[in-house]
Amino acid sequence: MEDLPQKFYFDEFLQKYRYHILLILLGLVLIGGGFIFLKKSFGVPSTKVEILQSAQSIEGDGEITAEISGAVINPGVYKLKNGSRIDDLLITAGGFSEDADRVWAEKYLNRAAKLTDGQKVYAISLSEQSESSSAKSGGGYQTISSNFSSDSNKFININSASVSELDSLSGIGPVYAQKIVEHRPYSKTEDLVTSGVITQTLYEKIKNSITTY
Length: 213
Known about the structure:
The chain is about 50% helix and about 10% strand. By secondary structure, the protein is mainly alpha-helical. The protein has three domains: about 1-45; about 55-150, Ubiquitin-like (UB roll), CATH 3.10.20; about 155-213, DNA polymerase, domain 1 (Orthogonal Bundle), CATH 1.10.150.320. The strands form two sheets. It has a three-stranded mixed sheet with strand order 2-1-3, covered by helices on one side. The chain is rod-shaped and about 115 Å long.
């Protein structure tokens, strides 16, 4: 019986302020709906984030296997980073050997080309070029490559030459020769200057006698 007055007052309060309460509840619903609308409209980030790895990044990872043979220092099968170039494969193999036909390589070998998995690169030697040209002409051992053979043999490979071989270059003493060895490998002969191994003046003296392949 003691709860009856309280229940009476509560019912009376609801009856008296029922419209106010309804307006308050309606206002809360509208505020909640407005917040959801604004969140969708202005792109408020969700706390759940899904990170997707792009196909391009997947393709850029991993290794490829390529073979190089013929007139190179260390022919064989090598593993390289995906996206490597023929130039990278040549450097890994130690560069062209002494009997490589560099004239042919300059004309027909695209060292900037990207390698594909399983690709094989073959470097032609001077003797192969000479034999091929002789067979086509039916005799005579003179070919374009053989005309350059004496010049080609002058080249010293700065990626594989010994200190004594480098020392034989004009203006290159034991100190410079050792520095050249310590800063290997080189992608191009100009790297000797850009890496600070030798001066531009000294490079001009030896540039026609050196190679990186």
